[in-house]
Structures are given as C-alpha cells and as structure tokens.
Amino acid sequence: MLDHDKTDGDGTGQSGKGVWKSGKGRGRATPKGRQYDDVALAEVRALLGDRPRRRDLLIEFLHLIQDEYGHQSAAHLRALAEDMRLSMAEVWEVATFYAHFDPLRENDPVPPDLTIRVCDSLSCELAGSETLIAALESGHDPAKVRVLRAPCMGRCDTAPVLEIGHRHIDHATPELVAQTLEAGDLHAVIPDYEDLAAYLAGGGYVRLTDLRAGGDWQAVQQTIADSGLRGLGGAGFPSGKKWGFVRGNAGPRYMAVNGDEGEPGTFKDRYYLERVPHLFLEGMLIAAWAVEAERVYLYMRDEYPAVLHILATEIAALERAGLIEPGYVDLRRGAGAYICGEESAMIESIEGKRGLPRHRPPYVAQVGLFGQPTLVHNIETCHWIARILREGPEILSSVERNGRKGLRSYSVSGRVADPGVHLLPAGSTIRDVIAAAGGMADGHVFKAYQPGGPSSGLLPASIDDVPLDFDTLQPLGSFIGSAAVVVLSDHDRARDAALNMLRFFEAESCGQCTPCRVGCEKAVKLMQAKIWDTGLLEEVSQAMVDASICGLGQAAPNPIKLVMRHFAEEVGGGVAPMPDSDGYDTNDALDG
Ligand SMILES: Cc1cc2nc3c(=O)[nH]c(=O)nc-3n(C[C@H](O)[C@H](O)[C@H](O)COP(=O)(O)O)c2cc1C
Ligand code: SF4
Ligand code: FES
C-alpha cells in the first residue's frame, strides 16, 4: 500500500491541508480551471434529457448542442463535461476534431446563423466549384452567411454540390442558392424508397427469420465464399472469411457497419440506401447473426441526412415488427471526418473519441469496439450478402468478363455524359465504364482517370484495357478501392487533379503520425511549383509509404507518383521512373 493511502483520505499526503496551501505561495483565490455555469448546465441537461451519460455518447451529445445553438459555446462544453463527469480537455479535443462542430472559446465570435458548405473535391472542382465559391463569397454578407469549403458530399454525379442547413443543392448555382434561401426549407429531401412493408411483401426477411430459427452459419459463410464477394469498403477482404476470424474470439462480440463513404468520388452506398435500404439492413442482420453480435453499431456519415432519416425510420419499423429488439441496432451519426472511414478510427469515433486509427495488431476482429471482437462491414457488402442469400451465389459468380468474376458498382463522375452508379461486370475496363456512362461529355476527349478514389491516383487514357477490379491495378501502382471512377478530359490537367487530391489528404489527415501530417502538407507546397522537385517529392512519398500508421498516409502519395510517371510533361519533364508501389500491398494498406 502506498504511504498516502495510510495517512490521508484525499490522496494529497497532507492530512487534510489543501494542496495549493502547502507550497511557498499565498495560494489561489479561485479554484483551478474553468468553472461551470448553472444556466449552461441546466440548458445542457434539458437537451440531454434522461439519456444515459455514457462516454461513448459524447459525439451524439455534441450534435445535440450544435443542432440547437448552431455552435458549441465554452460554457456549454464545460457544462457537458460536468454533466458527463469528464475533463474539459476530453470534451474539447473531441469537439475540435470534427469538421461539423463549431466549438468556441469564450471570446470567439459566434458563427452566422447560416452556413453554406461547398464541395471542393475533384468532381465538383471539375464542374466549377471554385467559381461558385467565389460568387457565393462575394454575393453574401459574411456576418450573415458563412461560406465554407467541404470535402466530397457523395453526390459527385450532380456536381457541383453544396449544402445549406441539411438541404443539398445539386448542379448548384448562386441563383439556386437564392431560390432555396427564399423558399426557406433547409431540411433534407427524403427520396422515395422501398419501405419495410414493400420489402416484406417481396419476400424480405424470410431468409433472416429462417436462419435465426436454425441456420448453420458455416453453410452461409460457404455460400458467401462461393459467390466470391469481397469487402466493398475498399480493402477487398473476402467477406465470409472475416466471420470465422471474429467468431474465433470469445464474446461478447459486436458488429460495426461502415457508412462513412468519405472517399471522394464514391456514392454507391448512398445510392443503395436511398432506394433499397432493407436489402442492406437484412444483410447486416444476417452477418450479425453469423457472428452472434450482441449489438450492431451503424456508423453513418453526417453528410447524408436523408439516409440518416431513412435508417432511423426503418430501424424503428423493424423494432415495431419484432424483427429486432429495441436498441439492438444503434445508429450513430458521424461528424465530418474522412478518417473515420478507416475501421479502427470508426471504432474510436463510435466510442465517443477522436477518430485516430489504432496500431495493429491486434485487429478489430480480435479487439474492436469496447475491447471486444468486432465484425466490420461496408454498407454495400451487407447489401450483397442479402442478395446472395436471397438469389444465390451465382448472381455474382456467374458473371465473367476479361477473366474476372462478379459485379462492381462503379460510382462514375467527371467528364462523362451520364454520371451515376453503374453496376457492371467486375472485369470492366475504363472504356466499358465510360460507355456505360453514356460516353464522354460533349466536347471532351478522354485523357485520364481516377480508378478508385484519390488514394488510387490517376492513370492515363492509354491504360484502357485493364479490368478495374481487385488485384488488377496494383502492378500499375494503383488499386480499385471503392470503385470511385472520375474521368478527366483534354480540358483538365492531371497535376491539378493530383493537387486537389493531396489537399484533401492534407485536410483529412488525423495528424497522429508525422510522415502523413507533415508529408501531405509538404507535398501540397511542392506540387504548387511550376516545375516539381520530383526528387524531393519521391523522398517525401517514400517516407509516407514506409512510416505512416494507416492507409491514408500510405496511399496519399499515389497521385503524386502516377502523375510524375504518366504526365511528366505537365510537371517539368526529365522524371526518373518511379519504382512500382509494391513495397506495400494497397489492400493491406487500406486496412492499415
Ligand atoms: C483512410 C481510409 C478510409 C476508409 N474509408 C472507408 C469508408 O468510407 N467506408 C468503408 O466501408 N470503408 C472504408 N475504409 C475501409 C475500412 O477500413 C474497412 O476495410 C471496411 O469498412 C471493411 O468492410 P468491408 O470488408 O465490408 O469492405 C477506409 C480505409 C481507409 C484506410
Ligand atoms: S497515416 Fe495519417 S491519417 Fe493515418 S494515422 Fe497517420 S496521420 Fe492519421
Ligand atoms: S460531391 Fe463533390 S466531389 Fe463528390
């Protein structure tokens, strides 16, 4: 036993004397730190109601304050800390991590009532977001309207896009903004979708009910393996195989669903959720059954308010129908942080913390949510699990093109005539994808493409015969990831697209490790020079690949390396060939 345990009751070792009186000074007239304010505490308590003050609900509570007041005052944050028995530092570090929160110090100005977030990621930049931002900034009084840049909102097929309140404006113009403000409805538009009654009428949830009544999880796992389904969040891990890993660890086990969809250019998850949410929900519940998950945490990005509404409505309908216990599916709202799509960062965020990726091992299948084995699946992966079990593994395994099997939901945007989600054979080449998207847009000649989000870099039009599938692009220093295809034309410069991508990574790096944090920042500076310092960029890239903790920092150099290799004339010429990026496996990199 330590001495202070014997001598005093308060752990100061001073037998009742206040610790600040024991030194030489005269002591403090006031207690240390910010004190809470009674009014703010009452306001916070009114907002939180009788919700349990659990640490993992911190982000949900921060949302309540942000939604009610449009910002988070120091007084409210201090009161929240008091009410949750947390330190102010813990609350502050979480509030400042997420882009959709506005935590304020005492003397900070309160943001205007209205915020317009304009997407400045690649497809929106190609569609004129810079001009749009300039017009909005000059057309509005900054005291009344705040114009902010924001990363991809998952609506790249209707670029440029912005969000006012919770209302998105597709093909945005200053005139459409003015009309929306005049109409005054800033709520999300809820699309028509297949609700529970319609899904049940078509035979929905029969498979789930049968399996729960006496199914064999290993037989289901085999069916998934026969279909060839691989994780569609980007890493491509064989889906059924994961279940065995998770089950190999003693329970309680959890499932966490990744609805972050933050990779710019990706909008397939939103596409399915806004149309057939129950295919996803049934697939999710089948996977949860297979690993005997105690509870499912569904992490959905805040940029999708319509989807959040649909999911909340349909989860409540499932509870009423007795298909799930109340509270079995816990819907969590992200708060604007791309890195929370990385599975361990997502788990940290569900636990109410900053989204800092964890070191591995242990893997989340072993030590995941709340320290327990956790199955993580992407939204679209769950959608296909339901389809495979309802329609048979052949819906994927019988499709073959260019030696590849299966189907792929390509999110296609940029300089094509008909952007959107196009479901095609997984062996499709970029020429097939462009053809499915109605060909090139009028007046545009195909020049380059991003095959799978900025992490996959850029390939030239000359590489047009490679199937855009898992494992096929690695020899080219790229990978398919979430199949977010952005097509560039002779109107565009590859170097500008690469700079856009690196600016995104710079803004979204969690900052935890130096190679990524400093590397992204340095690369953005170097890439603005007319002639790139290719030697230094190569060095920076290598350090990032070698020493970053997670896939963000490891894959961020791909656009730099591929532009130097294929578009050398744009960055100064005379570039030495780069080694292929097979120093690491990008599929592994995506999972850290
Ligand atoms: C930086 C980074 C961002 C990611 N973003 C997402 C995402 O938005 N959605 C997603 O499902 N997976 C994302 N992933 C992949 C996840 O870590 C994980 O592999 C995936 O959710 C597992 O589900 P799956 O096997 O069904 O694909 C990301 C990975 C990295 C490294
Ligand atoms: S690589 Fe970047 S995003 Fe990933 S942990 Fe390191 S700093 Fe964070
Ligand atoms: S919505 Fe703007 S790039 Fe995706």
UniProtKB/TrEMBL annotation:
<dbReference type="GO" id="GO:0051539">
    <property type="term" value="F:4 iron, 4 sulfur cluster binding"/>
</dbReference>
<dbReference type="InterPro" id="IPR019554">
    <property type="entry name" value="Soluble_ligand-bd"/>
</dbReference>
<dbReference type="Pfam" id="PF10531">
    <property type="entry name" value="SLBB"/>
</dbReference>
<dbReference type="Pfam" id="PF01512">
    <property type="entry name" value="Complex1_51K"/>
</dbReference>
<dbReference type="Pfam" id="PF01257">
    <property type="entry name" value="2Fe-2S_thioredx"/>
</dbReference>
<dbReference type="InterPro" id="IPR001949">
    <property type="entry name" value="NADH-UbQ_OxRdtase_51kDa_CS"/>
</dbReference>
<dbReference type="InterPro" id="IPR041921">
    <property type="entry name" value="NuoE_N"/>
</dbReference>
<comment type="similarity">
    <text>Belongs to the complex I 51 kDa subunit family.</text>
</comment>
<keyword id="KW-0004">4Fe-4S</keyword>
<dbReference type="InterPro" id="IPR019575">
    <property type="entry name" value="Nuop51_4Fe4S-bd"/>
</dbReference>
<keyword id="KW-0479">Metal-binding</keyword>
<protein>
    <submittedName>
        <fullName>NAD-dependent formate dehydrogenase flavoprotein subunit</fullName>
    </submittedName>
</protein>
<feature type="domain" description="NADH-ubiquinone oxidoreductase 51kDa subunit iron-sulphur binding">
    <location>
        <begin position="495"/>
        <end position="540"/>
    </location>
</feature>
<dbReference type="InterPro" id="IPR037207">
    <property type="entry name" value="Nuop51_4Fe4S-bd_sf"/>
</dbReference>
<dbReference type="Pfam" id="PF10589">
    <property type="entry name" value="NADH_4Fe-4S"/>
</dbReference>
<keyword id="KW-0408">Iron</keyword>
<dbReference type="InterPro" id="IPR011538">
    <property type="entry name" value="Nuo51_FMN-bd"/>
</dbReference>
<dbReference type="InterPro" id="IPR036249">
    <property type="entry name" value="Thioredoxin-like_sf"/>
</dbReference>
<dbReference type="GO" id="GO:0046872">
    <property type="term" value="F:metal ion binding"/>
</dbReference>
<dbReference type="GO" id="GO:0010181">
    <property type="term" value="F:FMN binding"/>
</dbReference>
<feature type="region of interest" description="Disordered">
    <location>
        <begin position="1"/>
        <end position="33"/>
    </location>
</feature>
<dbReference type="InterPro" id="IPR037225">
    <property type="entry name" value="Nuo51_FMN-bd_sf"/>
</dbReference>
<keyword id="KW-0411">Iron-sulfur</keyword>
<dbReference type="GO" id="GO:0008137">
    <property type="term" value="F:NADH dehydrogenase (ubiquinone) activity"/>
</dbReference>
